[in-house]
Amino acid sequence: MITLIGVDLAKKGQEFIFLGPAKECEDCRFKSSCIGNLEKNRKYIVTDVKENEQKCSIHSGEKVIPVEVERAEIDILTASKSIFEGSTFTYNAPDCDENCDYHDLCFPDGLLENDKCIVLESNGKHKEECKKGLKLNKLTLGFVI
């Protein structure tokens, strides 16, 4: 999908989380092509940079450029033993209130409750022990849309 991004961020491979539109976006003539296709709290990756800069007061440099983006892959830690490379599942956040060094991998940005996911890669067992005593596996996920 095509969106607009600040020129300083417009690099192939750049990842970002769309946190929602700024107030200034409400009346912008580029609103539909800029934020119209993006979902709030999703993680995207820039796959191609186009040409044709436009003015935009909310980005540094006050310019945006069209880029092609797709949902980014997400790394996650899970205790599930029934999830393996190539399998699909529905993500449900773990029942955990621990604040540890791995919290961001158990509750990764860009992954929402009830998302349909596919395991792109199984990265084996996580070497560090979970504070709750769980045996964790590290996975790289894609999305089933």
Question: Could you explain the architecture of this structure?
Answer:
This protein is mainly beta. The chain has two domains: 2-71, no CATH class; 74-143, no CATH class. The chain has helices at 31-34, 103-106, and strands at residues 2-6, 15-18, 42-49, 54-55, 63-71, 74-78, 88-90, 116-125, 137-143. The strands form two sheets. Strands 1, 2, 3, 4 and 5 form a five-stranded antiparallel sheet that branches. β4 (54-55) and β5 form a beta hairpin. It is elongated, with a radius of gyration of 18 Å.
Identify the notable features of this structure and list them briefly.
145 residues; mainly beta; five-stranded antiparallel sheet; four-stranded antiparallel sheet; 9 strands; 6% helix; 37% strand
Topology, element by element:
Elements: E1 2-6, E2 15-18, H1 31-34, E3 42-49, E4 54-55, E5 63-71, E6 74-78, E7 88-90, H2 103-106, E8 116-125, E9 137-143
Antiparallel strand pairs: 1-5, 2-3, 3-5, 4-5, 6-9, 7-8, 8-9
Question: What is the structure about, briefly put?
Answer:
The protein has 145 residues and is mainly β. Helix content is 6%, strand content 37%.
